[in-house]
Design a protein that fits this description.
This protein is α/β, with parallel strands linked by helices. It folds into 5 domains: 105 residues, Orthogonal Bundle (Arc Repressor Mutant, subunit A), CATH 1.10.10; 191 residues, Orthogonal Bundle (Tex N-terminal region-like); 116 residues, YqgF/RNase H-like domain (Nucleotidyltransferase, domain 5, 2-Layer Sandwich); 110 residues, DNA polymerase, domain 1, CATH 1.10.150; 125 residues, OB fold (Dihydrolipoamide Acetyltransferase, E2P) (Beta Barrel). It has 29 helices and 15 strands.
């Protein structure tokens, strides 16, 4: 089935036919995207994961199109409506819209004005008018169809019924729909107005109370904001092109001259547009722009998630993790180097002097007794106060004190996964464990969460949830397999994302490990229930065994290439282990000597690179970060302050930055750089450390405006409500959302937003 689509996919994705064909075959055989990208480079011509996923997705889309095509052909054939010409057109249709346009005239319809007119015998009159002959006298022709018994009392009624039939005929015309569809996309304007009487209740959507812009230029966040306002009952929106342009297209298609009959057709054209076709095309255009907005929002979320998952890990260290709190105290847990919970307690450094002394003594004793190598503190309520308490204890300077983003930790602590891991501990202990493990290995811990709960998206609840899940799952799978997974320590949640594995096989691996002890070699995986040769092929290269029987078990070299590496070592007169340690010997290897039909230079180069740093982690080296001492609350901020911060979310309208005051500040897109920025994600990444200047502070609403410019202008801004011109609406107050999706989402480029404080500042947890 895919063969007929290869050329189309090749053209759309600008790839070679052999690349698409090879990728399609590998996918059909059950290969995963990460496996194909890493271990089948010769077959695909070195396509990367993004390109392979694009081929996969397009194959699926065209498959769905074929299913619909077959369904339509079957329906038409069953009703004896399938002519040879119609079949040719349907077979040639390349989009779902074209297919549906061709099928529309034959689709079973509800009782319409046109069907009623046909029941009254007016179809012959409509055919006479449709010909638009100069000799046709419409009233005279209509007189012959007057029949009170059929509810056609006079000629005017007969003509009106005939025009209803013509209007539906025009509405069903595939060419007319295609041209109007193009017009709506190219020239449609999206307009929104406040629903009467909802001005006060819907104040968070004030920007859109009277807003108009070309839909083709409207950014994703603005389209989604207006749709949310409409869904919540505060806005009324329309998406239409200039009416005269739409009517002109239809008249050019159907009106022939200025005869009396042509004037009847012209009237039917106007009626068709206003009553039928206009609404149909508006609906399609809204779907089109919603899909486009969804794709952009999903892309932003996926990019942010990738950066978060690939954040630098601390590594295997003994960690003291603290989930801060005031009234309920600080939950403290001790984790060993594998992240295993050793002990837990609660301390109250913010209560009485006696309890503060007890807390200090407990922390010092634990740090000394268990050789704690790092302290992780969740960045929620009381985090800065807890950090200050820890830093005053006089602990060794070699022990980093790290603030950890705990977004979603409370969701994990109440999840089935957490209950299964810690059935005898409450959610406070589980949350603290998650904070510590996030410091040690963000990827391994965050895979336990639904990506949507991590809070690095934009309008994540408004977009197509299936498309969002598919994209985010792809990101998680990509990150897990890019880093690789330690087979003998990984949780089943992490293993489930390994190429070729699923929840069942991951659970079987853990069960086998628990029963038989650590795996000594990759080949032992074949003893695991459900682990057949195909699954082993897909998974083995991404699983690591430290100090395994074969030295390559700790690397990303696939077991299928062990024999090749053995030969390389033999040719160099050494063992594989010696080859991995000796750069001089590796430097003497000429990869061209080992090229064979099943293996080419790309894979050989990868193997030699891996031999130099087996099992290397592609993530950056961990570096401790500290917020500005003495600046712990919004009340401590003053315009002009320059503070260290960490980017927590990147959106289409700017970025949110944590500066250590329990409230993220917004860096509007116009304040990201001294140079023009079209897309914030091209400049900033989640987890990036920045130096931010405080621009303005709204203590009442706890909203912070920041700038990353070298010398930002701290002068007064335009008063609220000032027309922002081409840059979009002013930023009226918006309800804060952790996903950065308040309705005030700002413009891309141009002058600063006229009211910084209405941008949603993110709240912790």
């Amino acid at each position: 089935m895919i063969e007929k689509h290869i050329l189309k996919i090749t053209q759309e994705l600008k790839l070679e036919a052999r690349q698409v064909a090879a990728t399609a075959l590998l996918l059909e055989e059950g290969a995963t995207v990460p496996f194909i990208a890493r271990y089948r480079k010769e077959k695909t011509g070195e396509l990367d994961e993004v390109q392979i996923a694009a081929v996969r997705d397009r194959i699926e889309q065209l498959g769905e199109l074929d299913k619909r095509r077959d369904s339509i052909l079957s329906s038409l054939a069953e009703r004896n409506l399938l002519s040879e010409m119609l079949k040719i057109k349907i077979d040639a249709a390349e989009t779902l819209s074209t297919l549906e346009d061709l099928y529309l005239p034959f689709r079973p319809k509800k009782r319409t004005k046109a069907t009623i007119a046909k029941e009254r015998g007016l179809e012959p009159l409509s055919e006479i008018l449709w010909l638009q002959s100069p000799s046709t006298n419409p009233p005279e022709e209509a007189a012959a169809f007057v029949d009170p018994a059929k509810e056609v009392p006079d000629a005017d009624a007969a003509l009106a019924g005939a025009r209803d039939i013509l209007a539906e005929r025009i509405n069903d015309d595939a060419t007319a729909r295609a041209r109007l569809r193009d017009l709506y996309i190219a020239q449609g304007s999206i307009r929104s107005k406040v629903v009467g009487g909802k001005e006060e209740e819907g104040a968070k959507f004030k920007d859109y109370f009277d807003w108009t812009e070309p839909a083709i230029n409207a950014p994703s966040h603005r389209i989604l904001a207006m749709r949310r306002g409409e869904e919540e009952g505060f806005l009324f929106t329309r998406l239409t092109p200039p009416e005269e342009s739409a009517v002109a297209i239809l008249e050019a298609l159907f009106v022939k001259g200025a005869t009396a009959a042509a004037l009847q057709v012209k009237t039917a054209v106007g009626d068709c547009y206003k009553r039928l076709l206009g609404f149909a095309m508006e609906g399609e255009a809204r779907v089109h722009f919603k899909k486009r907005a969804d794709e952009e929002a999903v892309r932003v979320f996926a990019d942010n998630l990738r950066e978060l998952l690939l954040a630098a890990p601390l590594g295997q260290k003994t960690v003291l993790a603290i989930d801060p709190g005031f009234r309920t105290g600080c939950k403290v847990v001790l984790l060993d180097r594998q992240g295993k919970l050793l002990a837990n307690d609660v301390v109250y450094p913010e209560k009485s002097a006696r309890e503060q002394v007890e807390a200090a003594e407990m922390v010092r004793n634990v740090v000394k007794k268990f050789n704690v190598e790092a302290i992780a503190i969740g960045n929620g309520t009381a985090s800065r106060e807890t950090e200050g308490f820890i830093r005053k204890l006089g602990l060794p300077a070699s022990i980093p004190v790290v603030m950890v983003n705990e977004s979603g930790a409370s969701i994990y602590s109440a999840s089935d996964i957490a209950r299964e891991e810690f059935p005898n501990h409450d959610i406070t202990v589980r949350g603290a464990v998650s904070i510590g493990r996030r410091l040690m290995d963000p990827l391994a811990e965050l895979v336990k969460l639904d990506p949507k709960s991590i809070g690095v998206g934009q309008y994540q609840h408004d977009v197509d949830q299936n498309a969002l899940k598919r994209s985010l799952d792809d990101v998680v799978v990509s990150c897990v397999n890019r880093v690789g997974v330690e087979l003998n320590t990984a949780s089943k949640n992490l293993l489930a994302y390994v190429s070729g594995l699923n929840a069942r096989t991951a659970a079987n691996i853990v069960a086998h490990r628990d029963e038989n002890g650590p795996f000594r070699s990759r080949k032992e995986l074949l003893k695991v229930a459900g682990m057949g040769p195909k699954t082993f092929e897909q998974a083995a290269g991404f699983l690591r065994i430290r100090d395994g029987e074969h030295p390559l078990d700790s690397s990303s070299v696939h077991p299928e290439r062990y024999t090749l590496v053995d030969k390389m070592a033999s040719d160099m007169g050494c063992t594989v282990h010696e080859l991995m340690r000796d750069s001089a010997k590796r430097g003497k290897i000429d990869p061209k000597r080992y090229v064979a039909p099943e293996i080419g230079l790309p894979t050989l180069v990868d193997i030699l690179s891996e031999l130099s740093k087996p099992g290397r982690d592609p993530r950056q080296q961990f570096e401790a970060f500290s917020f500005q001492e003495g600046v712990e609350k919004v009340e401590h901020l003053q315009p002009g302050m320059k503070l260290p911060g960490v980017v927590t979310n990147v959106t289409a309208f700017g970025a949110f930055v944590d500066i250590g005051v329990h409230q993220d500040g917004l860096v509007h897109i116009s304040q990201i750089s001294d140079n023009f920025v079209k897309d914030p994600s091209e400049v900033l990444k989640v987890g990036q450390r920045v130096q931010a200047t405080v621009m303005e502070v709204d203590l009442q609403r706890k909203r912070i405006a920041l700038s990353l410019k070298t010398n930002p202008d701290l002068g007064p801004r335009a008063p609220r409500g000032t027309s922002p011109g081409a840059n979009g609406p002013s930023q009226g107050g918006g309800a804060p959302r952790r996903d950065g999706s308040s309705r005030q989402d700002s413009r891309s480029g141009g002058a600063p937003a006229v009211d910084w404080f209405t941008a949603a500042s993110q709240k912790k947890r």
